[in-house]
Specification:
This protein is of the alpha+beta class. It folds into three domains: 2-114, DNA Polymerase III, subunit A, domain 2 (DNA Polymerase III, Chain A, domain 2, Roll), CATH 3.10.150.10; 126-249, DNA Polymerase III, Chain A, domain 2; 252-370, DNA Polymerase III, subunit A, domain 2 (DNA Polymerase III, Chain A, domain 2). Helix content is 18%, strand content 42%. The chain has six helices and 26 strands. It has helices at 7-18, 72-81, 130-141, 197-207, 264-274, 324-334; strands at residues 2-5, 32-38, 42-48, 52-59, 61-64, 66-71, 87-92, 95-100, 103-108, 126-129, 155-161, 164-170, 174-181, 183-184, 190-196, 212-217, 226-231, 234-239, 258-263, 284-289, 292-297, 305-314, 318-322, 338-343, 350-355, 363-370. The strands form three sheets. It has a twelve-stranded antiparallel β-sheet. β25 and β26 (363-370) form a beta hairpin. It is elongated and about 75 Å long.
């Protein structure tokens, strides 16, 4: 195998593929990146850990076709640090020589015969705007569980109903849901999937700069149990989670007694400052009164802090407490100048939505439900 490729093209391709390499591969070959040079003038870089696959095809000047498996993270480190000149790859015995200007590296070939066959992506189910999808995934993935106690909660539930896609995640302490428009291949598309949250977030971020992302939701030969993503020459698959996701839609209150509208940035900064005195797992208290919300933390002989932020209140005054980081996560996700917080009572979940103007309508396409924390009055 022998080919030449531009340095920036190489670095981008290897970085895309290497992001999915397992930190502790169950078998040594899964730490490798597979390079396949084609006589058509392309090189495909691939990685696979039996759960997630990633591949990208880039143009190259191919003098001799072939394939080789090399240690992935080492190739990624080398690619990022090469000088800005064309890079040549050539196999020599059991090694791969990498030359870029006066820089020369000799990498050991890994046994490519032991490398598993990459899964075939399912047939394309439709497409979605790259920026909108990346934003939606980021808004929802913050609520996915990061522990291993309940693996089902580490996923993001994706529900397809015609041209509406609904993403939902919860860790039992908060719940995030986002609806967005997409372009299905079939007008009557109807499906529910459970995608690993961390993988979905990383994939969406990596593909977000693309104008459009093609999505593939199982159903094709060899594609069952998989979801596929494709943008340009970048392709990725991940295995879906198995299990029944809890029915959490009932958490959303059907009516509210109190609503407060506050400038998102002002509330974020106030909560950050006040939370400095909140010890680990200690909540911040929010007192909503006419014209303002007062944020407090600390009690008794401990350090204490308080700050007031202008707010518009509709309904009875209310005092409630939240985990400060969970509250900040939600405020950071709404992505709008103003936030609306809706309550029923201090012991019941609150709903956070965003809105563009102080006296405008709330955008219900994104809802973040936050469980309150009991505090000593």
């Amino acid at each position: 195998m022998k080919f030449r490729v531009e340095r920036d093209v190489l670095a981008e391709a290897v970085t895309w593929v290497a992001r999915g390499l397992p930190a502790r591969p169950p078998v040594p070959v899964l730490a490798g990146i597979l390079l396949q040079a084609s006589a058509e003038g392309t090189v495909t870089f691939s990685a696979f850990d039996y759960e997630v696959s990633a591949r990208i095809t880039v143009p190259a000047d191919v003098a001799e076709e072939g394939s080789v498996l090399v240690l992935g993270r080492l190739l990624a480190d080398i690619s990022r640090n090469l000088p800005g000149k064309p890079v040549e790859f050539a196999t020599s015995g059991g090694k791969v020589d990498v030359t870029c200007g006066s820089s020369r590296f000799s990498l050991m070939q890994m046994p490519s015969g032991d490398y598993p066959t990459l899964p075939s992506a399912p047939e394309t189910s439709g497409s979605v705007d790259g920026h909108a999808f990346t934003q939606a995934v980021a808004q929802v993935a913050i609520a996915a569980d990061r522990g291993d106690t309940l693996p089902i909660l580490t996923g993001v539930r994706v529900e397809i109903d015609g041209d509406t896609m609904t993403l939902l995640a919860t860790d039992r302490y908060r719940l995030a849901m986002r609806e967005l428009h997409w372009n299905p291949s079939a007008a009557d598309a109807n499906q529910v999937l459970l995608v690993p949250g961390r993988t979905l977030l990383e994939t969406a971020k990596a593909l977000g700069s693309s104008g459009s992302i093609d999505l593939a939701f199982g159903g094709a030969a060899g594609g069952d149990g998989l979801v596929g993503f494709e943008a340009g020459q970048r392709r990725s698959t991940t295995r879906l989670l198995d299990g029944e996701y809890p029915k959490v839609s009932s958490i959303f209150p059907t009516s509210t007694d109190t609503e407060a509208v506050v400038a998102t940035h002002d509330l974020v900064e106030a909560v950050k400052r006040v939370a400095l005195v909140a010890e680990r797992n200690t909540p911040v208290r929010l007192k909503f009164t006419d014209g303002q919300v007062t944020i407090e933390a600390g009690t008794g002989d401990d350090a204490q802090a308080s700050e007031a932020v202008e707010s518009t209140l509709t309904g009875p005054e209310l005092e409630i407490a939240f985990n400060p980081q969970f509250l900040l996560d939600g405020l950071g996700a709404v992505g709008t100048p103003f936030s609306r917080i809706s309550f029923t009572q201090p012991s019941r979940p609150a709903v956070l939505t965003g809105q563009a103007e102080a006296d405008g309508e709330a955008d219900s396409s994104y809802r973040y439900v936050l469980m309150p924390v009991r505090f000593a009055s």
